[in-house]
Amino acid sequence: MRPFIGTYENKVDQKGRVSVPAKFRAVLQAEGYASIVVRPDPERGCIEGYGMDRLERLSDMTPDIVNLGDPNAAPAYQILAESEELTFDPNGRVLIPAWMLEAAGISDSAVFVGLGRVFQIWNPAAHATFRATQLRPAAQARGTGA
Amino acid sequence: MRPFIGTYENKVDQKGRVSVPAKFRAVLQAEGYASIVVRPDPERGCIEGYGMDRLERLSDMTPDIVNLGDPNAAPAYQILAESEELTFDPNGRVLIPAWMLEAAGISDSAVFVGLGRVFQIWNPAAHATFRATQLRPAAQARGTGA
DNA sequence: CGCTTTCCCATGAGATACCATGCCTCGTCC
DNA sequence: GGACGAGGCATGGTATCTCATGGGAAAGCG
């Protein structure tokens, strides 16, 4: 599978519609999917996106009889319960649910960040902060400025 | 098989009718079924739902004459015995038996939770409690606040 | 004959598809 | 090398359709 790469900032209109970057769409359509799957990422405060194949794999790994007493089952439960499949409209846009936009603090603009097998959707300001606090120190430790 | 994903809250009217989320119906109809199969889940206090294909798989695995002494047969026996098939009305609703609603504490509203191959139907308040007590601690253990 | 259950219709809200516009990028021609 | 032109992509608005939900009528059962 081709990786998701690059960073793009697109507008979010009042209905919650966003254009998925064409490069990302190309990756998914090469796999035969006309949708993205998204879920909130509470650890980082953004939205995580990927293809349906990733979710189907997770579903297949989860036993028929969900044993929620198993602590290992809780993360899978949460991912499946909180994921939503968003299909592209004819122009390549998706409608992100309002509650998910709120969870990520996204209002009128969103940043798509390719991370290989998955990608993220950020509030632009939050993403800038994340880069400054989480990524730049690591880069500086390696001796690179930015 | 496409997985059941996402969380939806729908109204239960005075007759016990509930709209099955359209996304869930689409999964079942892709399999050729116009119904859901439900059974009470006494361990968690909710209703468990799935497609008839799952029951057929269980039935195939179960011997003609159920040997109740076999501990492996007991879960399949119980699931088969307690399951009810609920067919969609023309609008995509099902009529949940009153006793099952009572067992799950559901009165005027129900939460559908997709879990891949199966889904759950909860009393909204009970589901909120379940998420707070069973899922959030797991997330906090990983270092996340919410 | 009354009651319960099932089917059908109507309505409003929300989501989806469609159409149109402008910008930016890339390719081509002069 | 610069200007022009074409195509793709992002974006905004509008129309259509699906879905969820409530009520009512008809049929089956006790």
TrEMBL record, chains A, B:
It comes from the Bacteria. It comes from Pararhodospirillum oryzae. The gene is mraZ. Forms oligomers. It is found in: Cytoplasm, Nucleoid. GO terms for molecular function: DNA-binding transcription factor activity; transcription cis-regulatory region binding. Its main location: cytoplasm. One of its GO terms (cellular component) is nucleoid. This is Transcriptional regulator MraZ. Belongs to the MraZ family. Residues 7-54, 83-126 form the SpoVT-AbrB domain.
